[in-house]
Specification:
eight-stranded parallel barrel; alpha/beta
């Protein structure tokens, strides 16, 4: 190719200015990308975002996001309310790491409420409703609290009630060598360090640091217990700076799923009593009279409870739930790795198109949307955020972690855990024991849940798919297994840093800046052909090892 003549070569100093001669920026705007009449329905793999300019470190990227009208998280990560994904351990761990886990409801209401209670008690500022015993309680009572709730530092009052005169404290060291029948009054610690009612949280934390005690009781001017502060919570504040906490109570946020049947109203009452902050109405097709009635009832009965409604994939579905009073929408139908709704029912929508359509509409009313399904890697998370999602809900990506319910086993030489869709026949079967009756670590169990007697309960899978009255159950999901991913304490930080680096490549410093850039046309996209998708993955190697993080 001949070299251009000097007359046609522009000065390199004019390169940036010359960009103004083009009619538009390189790539596609989001509206051009998501035009279904041109490109059809798109999934996350069907497009890429174009890089921007980097003038800041990835560590400066802010991932704060609003997941409901009134709840803001430090990271856009949520776990799905599935019985092989989210119970106590997942909910606590994810909240400590800046996300939130939605506790499934394929279990008895009492067991689910116990899980919510365990999340709320895990980390506190001032504990307004501490467990309180009297001197006549026994070591066995303390050990029971330890087994169910995970702690045993307990204040002792004259009557065993909050508001009575404080007479002592019992800790784990006190009960180590005592018989279960021993009365607490015989060995409780009576030399106490306390703080007066009205002390600020900062002042109380300072007293706790200097006293080197495990618990700091807060008392009124007559020595009556009013609240409690725990040293373990100070350590958690240092170790988990992104923790998702209610700004008023300083407790971890707790979220749980319920259905839309009459019995779910009684279930929800138990969950609210346990301290629930966010309820997710769990339905494969959220645009129903059942869900609309449920939203309206919740808003009348529990006006401070945040309601995430769904699932939806169209503007028309979203409009009805927004009008009913939903605080957020869950978007997705048939896009999950274990979901076969689109195949079996011929109903649903490609996930990227669904997220964009619903988010664009819901944003006009200040309603956040949560992209539920189809998330397989960091790139999918960022793509969902770019299309308007405030957070992503993950099932398969978190299944197989240490904190997910279930026991590890070996399949074809690989260490795996079971993972099933809530639309699978296995999940719809009523024969499984209730959550609290299974061994620790198995689906439907938690080490923090009380050991309740076996009790029948409505199957969450059948109500989710409107199948409870059907003589023949039609599966909309499958059962399988997923490879061991280790603990979420390592995996979720990898996702978080990955999102930060992705936003850095795009040239934006926050999720809000990403979405503003997309809306204004500054963040650009490109369609990926099948060949481009092959090119963008690992190819041309005889073998390779794929390590995601270290």
């Amino acid at each position: 190719m001949p070299a251009p003549s000097k007359a046609t070569v522009l000065s390199s100093s004019d390169a940036v200015a010359h960009l103004a001669s083009y009619q538009c920026l390189d790539g596609l705007s989001v509206k051009d990308l998501m035009d279904s009449r041109v490109h059809g329905g798109l999934t996350y793999n069907d497009f890429l975002m174009l890089p921007g300019k980097i003038d800041f470190p990835a560590s400066d990227v802010i991932t704060d996001t609003r997941i409901t009208r009134n709840v803001v998280l430090k990271t856009p990560f949520m776990s799905s309310p599935m019985d092989t994904v989210t119970e106590t351990d997942m909910a606590i761990s994810l909240a400590l790491l800046g996300g939130i886990g939605v506790i499934h409801h394929n279990q008895s209401p009492e067991s689910q409420a116990a899980m919510v209670r365990a999340v709320k008690r895990h980390e506190n500022g001032f504990i307004a409703d501490p467990v309180v015993f009297s001197p006549n309680h026994t070591v066995a009572d303390v050990l029971d609290i330890k087994a169910r709730l995970g702690f045993c530092g307990i204040p002792i009052t004259e009557t065993g009630c909050l508001g009575a005169k404080l007479v002592g404290v019992v800790t784990s060291r006190d009960v180590q060598f005592e018989s279960p029948e021993t009365l607490l009054g015989e060995f409780m610690t009576t030399s106490l360090v306390t703080a007066p009612q009205g002390v600020t949280l900062a002042e109380a934390n300072q007293i706790l640091r200097s006293s080197k005690k495990g618990k700091l009781p807060i008392v009124d001017d007559q020595g009556r217990l009013t609240s409690l502060l725990a040293r373990s919570d100070l350590l958690k504040n240092q170790n988990y700076p992104l923790a998702s906490k209610n700004p008023n109570s300083k407790q971890l946020y707790a979220a749980a799923a319920v259905g839309t049947r009459p019995s779910d109203r009684e279930r929800l009452k138990l969950l609210v009593e346990a301290g629930l902050d966010i309820v997710v109405l769990d339905s494969s097709q959220g645009n129903s009279v059942f869900q609309i009635d449920m939203i309206q009832w919740i808003k009348q009965t529990f006006p401070k409870l945040e309601v995430i409604a769904g699932n939806v994939v169209t503007r028309e579905q979203a409009a009805n739930l927004i009008a009913a009073g939903a605080d957020a929408l869950r978007v997705g139908m048939g896009s999950g790795s274990i979901c076969i709704t689109q195949e079996v029912m011929a109903v649903g929508r490609p996930q990227a198109t669904a997220v964009f359509a619903v988010a664009e509409f819901a944003s006009k009313f200040g309603i956040p949307v949560i992209a539920d399904g189809g998330i397989s890697n960091v790139g999918h998370i960022v793509k969902a955020l770019s299309l308007g999602a405030s957070a992503v809900m993950m099932g398969g990506l978190l299944a197989g972690t240490t904190e997910a319910p279930g026991e590890y086993f070996y399949h074809d030489g690989k260490r795996v855990k079971s993972y099933r869709g809530m639309g699978s026949l296995e999940a719809m079967e009523q024969g499984r024991p209730s959550a609290s009756d299974q061994a620790n670590g198995k689906p439907g169990s938690t080490k923090h849940a009380p050991r309740l007697s076996s009790k029948s309960h409505e199957n969450a899978a059948t109500t989710r798919y409107f199948s409870e009255s059907s003589a023949v159950k039609v599966a909309q999901g499958v059962s399988g297994d997923v490879q061991d991913k280790g603990s979420v304490t390592a995996f979720v930080p990898y996702l978080h840093v990955g999102v930060q680096h992705s936003l850095q490549d795009i040239g934006v410093r926050s999720v809000s800046e990403l979405q503003a850039g997309v809306k204004e046309g500054r963040v650009r996209f490109e369609i990926r052909t099948p060949s481009a998708q092959v090119e963008g993955g690992v190819h041309g190697l005889h073998s390779y090892t794929k390590r995601l993080y270290a």
